Amino acid sequence: MTAALVVLGGYLLGSVPFGYWLVRVGKGEDIRRVGSGNIGATNVWRTYGRWYGVPVVLFDMAKGAVPGVVGTLLVGELVGVLAGGAAMLGHWRPLFLRFQKGGKTVATAGGTFFGVAPLLGAIGLGLWIAIFLVPRYASLASILTALSLPFLGLALVDNTMPDRLAETCRELGRYEFLFTAAPLRMKGSTGAPAHPMAIF
Question: I want to staple 15 with a disulfide (CB 3.0 to 4.6 A). Which of 30, 90, 147, 183 is the partner?
């Protein structure tokens, strides 16, 4: 019962459209009608600058980190992963926007990694930045990082991590690919270079 409530809470928290609300309150505009039409941090940053982009990055990461930490502490690592995956699903199709287009889940996925497996999350962030700095396309960096993280997790498992954390890394890799790489491919890319500071 506790596990189910944590996962449900993860989805509800993930459904909170911070990018939409911050722009609506601060600018009186609908972020879905400008730029790429995405409510995530990259579109907010490109359109309204870092003063709006940075808070959205942090809030969207928190949407993944909080359920990940709570699920891990209350039940176990697997529930932390499932709760973070539910938050990513909520970010992609938010209940509070009537299941309409949300974000691409990259920041929320990163937050989930930091909440459940901080070392892997830090490596993933470093890898994302390293890839992004070459072609300067956020979507490409996100897809390549999503594809790489399961293998990085296994490499860490083989050398440094205990068995329970090993399983956590494998599950994180599966959910991160499912909810990050797949939505990015389905939505496609506008082809416009991302803002150099738009990490997620």
Answer: 90
Low-confidence ranges of the chain (pLDDT < 50): 181-182, 185-200
For 111-160, what is each residue's pLDDT tens digit?
A: 998 888 888 888 888 888 888 788 777 778 778 877 877 777 777 665 55
Q: In terms of Cα–Cα distance, which of 27, 14, 174 is closest to 102?
A: 14
Burial of 25 (0-12, 13-18, 19+ CB in 10 A): exposed
Q: How far apart are alpha carbons 71 and 83 in whole angstroms? A: 6
- Count CA atoms within 13 Å of residue 4 on its CB side: 1
Give the Å distances, CA to CA, from 171 to 47, 53, 129, 142: 35, 29, 23, 18
pTM assigned to the model: 0.72
The residue among 91, 160, 69, 96 whose CA lies nearest residue 123 is 160
Identify the pLDDT of residue 196: 44
**Closest among 141, 152, 157 to 77, alpha carbons compared:** 157
Name, in order, each residue with C-beta under 8 angstroms of 187's C-beta and a sequence gap of 6 or more.
Answer: 38, 104
Q: Which of 36, 64, 85 is nearest to 198 (CA)?
A: 36
> What are the structure tokens assigned to 168, written together?
């956590």
- Residue 59 CA: distances (Å) to CA of 54, 63, 74, 191: 9, 6, 22, 26
